[in-house]
Amino acid sequence: MKTDWLELMVKRPVWIIVLGCILTAALATGAQNLYFRGDYKVFFGPDNPQLQEFEGMQRTFSKNDNVAIVVVPKSGNVFQKDIFTLVMQMTEDAWQTPFSTRVDSITNYQHTEAEQDDLIVDYLVGEFSDTEITQDMIEKAKEVTLNEPLLVNRIVSPSGHVTMINVTVQLPDKLDQTADVMEVTASVRALVDKYAKLYPDVDFHLAGIIMMNNSFAEESVNDLSTLVPGMFLAVLVMLAILLRSVLATLATLVVIAFSILAAMGFFGWTGLYMSTATIGAPTIIMTLAVADCVHIIATVNYNLRQGMAKATAIIDSLKLNFTPILITSVTTAIGFLTFNFSDVPPLRHLGNLVAFGVLMAFLFAITILPALLYLLPIRIVAQTDGSSNTMEKFADWVVRKHKVLLPTTALIVIVIAGMVPLNKINDVPVEYFGEELAFRQASDFMDDNLQGVTNIDFAFHTNKESGINDPEFLADVEAFSSWLRQQEIVDHVLTLTDTFKRLNMNMNADDPAMYKLPEQQDLAAQYLLMYEMSLPYGLDLNNQLNVDKSSMRLTVAMDNVGSKEVIAMENAVREWFAANAPDVTVTAASPALMFAHIGETNMKSMLSGSALALVLISILLVFALKSVKFGLISLLPNLAPAAMGFGIWAIFAGNVNLGLSIVTSMCLGIVVDDTVHFLSKYKKAREKGQAAEQAVRYAFASVGRALWITTLVLFVGFMVLAQSSFALNGDMGLLTAVIMVLALVVDFLLLPAFLLVFDKKVYSTGAENVEQKQSESLA
């Protein structure tokens, strides 16, 4: 039945191609439903507890998505008339930023001071025009600024060489905010470009949550416009050289195109969106589709060189490769489907998208490809392939050296794999972006010169109206703020207790000795009311207080640290309150905290996914190879490459991010390709009476060339993905490329040596000298 069906590919090639085109077109039309989301929130499902906490805090207080415009005078001194003029003008213009709700700078800082019995609240220098700014004003502003905890290491550096204009925006409350983020970014960039021309002696950097969101979107578009075309070109060149046939290469490209169009169209029909993580899907599908095609084409070419007719050569190739390609396609799909264990929606989307694309690639490889090979005027001269001789010589070397190869390669695998525990799960969101990108450079500069972009918001809930004015509560917050400022990784603490202390000093004739918290609740409430009534629109305290004054938000800015340090800080804070202020209810939230937790939970989830993938793939191989023994043997070359890959990663990098958390599951499915093809050929020879030595030689001769070609294609494909400036894609591509090479090394050295030592079973065929005859026929 299978034979009859396979023969249709050469008996009815035109109909097969037409049906394939209809199927592809039907699926591809779904691509019109695709849309792109570039915001960081796509990495968190709606049930994610950290996302819920973050959105709850955003509802309680004003939203704090921001763009940080870092102003860097080349003179190294912010406190100059022209710089103050620049900051004042940019501050005023920044209010025109779409969706802006607040703009903070040194010039519009609301400075308070006493004038007899009155509290004066006014702009530090913002009400003065360019001609009225004097050196005395600047000196006063410098004295106030560099001694104000709310400003130092936040709005201005301690040395006064850098300052920042912080634009807070409130984006429309909708699922896809990508267009709004791009609108804000375009406006701010235009603002900076305007003043960069007017002030050539000043440098500007743009950081903040909005710029991070925009970088997610921009880098995805860049990857799509560069990596996919780059991969197509690489595949075209490699296949033309390795397959030595332009027409066979053309047929392969048709299969690739059909597979990608079908997969992307299917994804569109599901109603899901594209994201930074799924942008790499076409490249991955392309790479895996090539592997299927190469095995079929290599066998066809081999048969043609042996003098077979084209139709016979194609049918024989399909018969020989159908089961191994089916197994590898299913195992690869299983590996990607286990991404559904991930807590990150885009990674689940990537897994499902690629799994469907892999299965479509299999379908087109056994239908469209042979039909095209039959119709296209491909001509192969009947001759001995020199590369086969190379494989046979290599096989002879492996057979001769197998007693040395086995312990040597096994020891190397064990030593390198032993490095795996040196890896640590550590996501640094800023480092998702390459050092050559403007956002990364701006964030690093801000971290080095002002404050880090890793923030955590802590909300303190008294659960009673005006509860934040309670002196005991304020004392707890003040003690906590002091503790925070002693932590090594903390750059700045934005706390309302500093405002209370300054107001208490102001209302006591600016006596420095009274720079402390009010001792009575009604006095604290009175101070706060007077202050709030004096604040201009847009510079109120909604970013720190809720409406009924029952909750207060404190923001801590830290160095650009990883998930380990962020979670450690959160735990330390909770321990501090449990020990020092157990009556205060504390919640913590921020994008940095969200990424920190998702990295930890995702790794645990993907370990379960990898375990399931291993079990399912092993069971499938047992049935496919019709042997428990060979199924168990296959575990060795399937597990060793991933273990070695992560061991090497531990030596050269050591940090495992979200992208790397899925590599094991993905590679378990892909590396099966080499193992299945090698073992199936080896087992076939053994069942025909060949000794282990002859079976190894046959496996190398029949499939060795195809294996190294597919490995080269896989390596190049994932190395193209590794060029992404987005680390989740780039790191995943790099480590997978390394594992692909290691898989070939294991299958070419460790696996045959293992078989030669441990597979001593004699397969009886019921006839004398059958082993020799089969050896001759197989050769």
Automatic annotation (TrEMBL):
This is SSD domain-containing protein. Pfam families: MMPL. It comes from Catenovulum agarivorans DS-2. It is found in: Cell membrane. It comes from the Bacteria. GO terms for cellular component: plasma membrane. The keyword Membrane applies. The chain crosses the membrane at residues 224-243, 250-273, 279-300, 320-341, 353-376, 404-422, 606-625, 632-652, 658-679, 699-722, 734-758. It is a multi-pass membrane protein. Residues 250-375, 583-757 form the SSD domain. Keywords: Cell membrane, Membrane, Transmembrane, Transmembrane helix.
